Amino acid sequence: MNHLKLVVVNDPDRRDEYRPVDILIDGERLIDVLTRIETPYAIAEGSPELAGHYHSLSIKTTFPPSRHFLGEPKPILAHDAKTAILVCACGCEGCWDFVCRIDFPRTQSLGRTSSKFIEIGTILILGH
User: Burial of 78 by CB count in 10 Å (0-12 exposed, 13-18 middle, 19+ buried)?
Assistant: First the structure.
């Protein structure tokens, strides 16, 4: 099973709740993985600079109280049954966002905290 981690990035251009949050899978930035996968296709199309041309979502969109990653995506980032997890770096709304379906196929109890059970789902991310 892959390890998913969300990491807040220090970006001098974006502050407070607008700082970006990188998605890491097994310790590697998702944007870097996509750049590697998309590069041959972008070169073949004559636009190598477009490979991995994404921005991470903000703290405000990524973490609670936002429910963006919990089945209630922001309307501007919802694409039918899929959710944008990275946005196109060009800044045009919905241009070439990286979208996926996020499922919680099973739930497991991790124990008690303050007399309440914490339920954590297994997140399954399926791209484009």
Answer: middle
Tokens, residue 22: 């990188």
Q: Judge whether 97 and 87 are in contact, CB under 8 Å.
A: yes
Taking the model in full, what pTM does it have?
0.76
Check if the beta carbon of residue 102 is closer than 8 Å to that of residue 83.
yes
- Structure-block tokens of residue 48: 């190598």
Copy the structure tokens of residue 95.
């241009």
C-beta separation of 95 from 79 below 8 A: no
Q: What is the pLDDT of residue 118?
A: 36
Residues in the chain where the model's pLDDT stays below 70? 104-128
